[in-house]
TrEMBL record:
<feature type="signal peptide">
    <location>
        <begin position="1"/>
        <end position="19"/>
    </location>
</feature>
<dbReference type="InterPro" id="IPR010028">
    <property type="entry name" value="Acid_phosphatase_pln"/>
</dbReference>
<protein>
    <submittedName>
        <fullName>Acid phosphatase 1</fullName>
    </submittedName>
</protein>
<comment type="similarity">
    <text>Belongs to the APS1/VSP family.</text>
</comment>
<dbReference type="GO" id="GO:0003993">
    <property type="term" value="F:acid phosphatase activity"/>
</dbReference>
<keyword id="KW-0325">Glycoprotein</keyword>
<dbReference type="InterPro" id="IPR014403">
    <property type="entry name" value="APS1/VSP"/>
</dbReference>
<keyword id="KW-0732">Signal</keyword>
<dbReference type="InterPro" id="IPR023214">
    <property type="entry name" value="HAD_sf"/>
</dbReference>
<dbReference type="InterPro" id="IPR005519">
    <property type="entry name" value="Acid_phosphat_B-like"/>
</dbReference>
<dbReference type="Pfam" id="PF03767">
    <property type="entry name" value="Acid_phosphat_B"/>
</dbReference>
<dbReference type="InterPro" id="IPR036412">
    <property type="entry name" value="HAD-like_sf"/>
</dbReference>
Amino acid sequence: MLQFHRLLLCFLVAAVATSQTHLEMVAEDPSGGLADDPKVQYCESWRLAVETNNAGEWKKVPSRCVDVVADYIKGPQYLTDSKMVARLSHAYAKTVQLAGDGKDVWIFDVDETLISNFLHYTLHGYESRMCNETAYDQWVYTGKATALPWSLWLYRKLQSLGFQLVLLTGRKEHHRNSTEQNLMAVGYRSWKKLILRESLDATKTAMTYKSEKRAELEAEGYTIHGSSGDQWSDLLGPPMAKRSFKLPNPMYHIP
């Protein structure tokens, strides 16, 4: 029995020492040692932090994760994740009792929600370099963004259910023609409104701007049943939709 107690005591001392060592490591490295993990594991954890909004107002993709982000966007997992969001959105939409007065609304963001700017960000390092607004403006004018297939699927399903679709984007008013042409070219039709930033909105954060536009819609008598966006700033801030759905986007962050 004495021998057993000695072994138990040794085990407890070792456990406490191990725990203390771990606590010291965390104190020195708040990432919990993630920096020592293999690159892909670290970058997948970073991507999860982005999607769950734990990363906060991050500025750019870590340089070590650029190729991992690119592989994700180009690979099957991005489509699978987008499909899951679309399917869950549709499942919710089918439960909504519409008033049928033309005021039942679903809001969509545009960039990385309805259409993908993947080709543009391929050339600009997936925001591993700071955003070049001039280059982005030039890209928007080309109208070459492609449809996100599962968003197009959801868009059409919502139309068939009787929702009015409002497109609320951070693109500027002078992008209206190129944006409309791009959307129609890839299959989007018959939206109720396309709302873009006007000059008075230029200095507002995305969350403030989009919150104000939702409030204006409600003041006009619209009921916002659902909202889809790739940024948390597309979705948060009063008044919010009755249900909001976040699409994946580890390429850039808009506060």
